[in-house]
Amino acid sequence: MDKVFSRRTALVTGASVTAGLVLPGVAHAHETDGVGFVLGAVTLDGGEQVTSLTLATSRFGPIDPASLTTGTFSVHAKATSPIDTGGQDIGYNLDRPVTAARLDHRGNVVLELSHGEGQPGGGTLGYLNSKSRNFRLDLVYTVTQNAPVRLRHGRPLTITRFTQGRLANPEVDAFTYHASRSGMKYRLYSPGRRHGRRPLVVWLHGGGEGASLPDNYYDNETTLRANRGALGFATREAQAIFDGAYVVAPQSTAAWMDDGPRFAPLINEIIRDVLRTRPVDPRRVHVVGCSNGGYMSLKMTTVYPGTFAASVPICGVVAAREAGGPPLIPDAELAAISTPTWLVASRDDDTVDPQANTVHAHELIPRSSLTLYDHVVWNGHQFPGHWSWIYVARNDPSLDGTHVWQWLARQHR
């Protein structure tokens, strides 16, 4: 993890309002010491955003919280692509509004930053159209102190230098880093101590979260930062429903749809790795995926019909990629699927035709269930119609009063 952060962060300096002027009775951080800060991030439904900065100020002693206002510090953010964009404008260079300034339980100053779905300037990822991939942006944050803060004993404090540290996203950081013997990378969430063997949820990402090997880009990160697909199953709510579940998120070296038959045994190898090294119940292995991963979820149940207790393919592709070409999953294979399957899509999906793919698969897969939304709307924000995975990540699909997570948790071979 340290290697990733060192590649993605930079040292920055914020100028003090005093511009080097030493005022009587003012305590200054020594120039060689500086104050480090951590970028706090959250993965929203639309992708990861930096939502706060935590300044390591506790070593100066207690700070009077009344001396902190939204104008005490300013924050500037610059984000650039780590690879050649071919002329596409990716990234940003702007001021981040500070919405609150407070102290955490350690006495460090926390600057809350304006953020939200659709807001520019907070994202950690950029989507490169020519590659159809999400990439982690190189982030440089600059902090400037505009007014002194007061220590509890009354002395003012002005900090003259700030040093950027790591990006911290507790939900993402809870997933450990791994690679199979074949070299496919994956992240793994392990539940707290439970008695007996636990279920395993396999999350297969969309096309935008795969690697881009020609650019030497295979980071094992975007699978958890581009959306909440895998993270949803690691939430407290989901873990309570599953009574503790492992969650594994493999990262493709390309796009699953490029060669599903080749990727299937590589995914299966990861599943076997987890079964061998963790107390997982082999009768309760579930596969869930979106878009490219929706296709791959279905493909896995055709290649390994005895492996999975249940499957939830979301806005997946089964039809031919080009007019006149062969279907990605032939009708005969769909009709032979015996794994309990719950398909999800939205009617306004203009990326993957829901009628030719999700509805068609539902009509062929025996005893399958289907949830078909009109639009993708969550917390009042409308997302592209292709992003129906948001609903599964929030446990929204429901049939006869049973939600999709509860349905999954009840399935076993």
Structure explained in plain terms:
The chain is of the alpha/beta class and 413 residues long. Helix content is 19%, strand content 32%. The protein has helices spanning 2-8, 170-173, 222-225, 236-242, 260-277, 292-303, 331-335, 355-364, 389-393, 404-410, and strands at 27-28, 35-44, 47-55, 73-80, 92-96, 98-103, 109-113, 125-128, 133-136, 138-145, 149-150, 156-158, 162-168, 175-179, 185-189, 198-204, 246-251, 280-290, 310-314, 342-346, 369-373, 376-378, 381-383, 398-399, 402-403. It has a six-stranded mixed beta sheet. Strands 6-7-3-2-13 form a five-stranded mixed beta sheet. Helix 6 (292-303) links the parallel strand 18 and strand 19. The protein is elongated, with a radius of gyration of 24 Å. Residues 1-27 have low confidence and may be disordered.
SSE arrangement:
Elements: H1 2-8, E1 27-28, E2 35-44, E3 47-55, E4 73-80, E5 92-96, E6 98-103, E7 109-113, E8 125-128, E9 133-136, E10 138-145, E11 149-150, E12 156-158, E13 162-168, H2 170-173, E14 175-179, E15 185-189, E16 198-204, H3 222-225, H4 236-242, E17 246-251, H5 260-277, E18 280-290, H6 292-303, E19 310-314, H7 331-335, E20 342-346, H8 355-364, E21 369-373, E22 376-378, E23 381-383, H9 389-393, E24 398-399, E25 402-403, H10 404-410
Parallel strand pairs: 1-12, 2-13, 16-17, 16-18, 18-19, 20-21
Antiparallel strand pairs: 2-3, 3-7, 4-5, 4-10, 6-7, 8-9, 11-12, 14-15, 15-17, 22-23, 24-25
Helix pairs in contact: 5-6
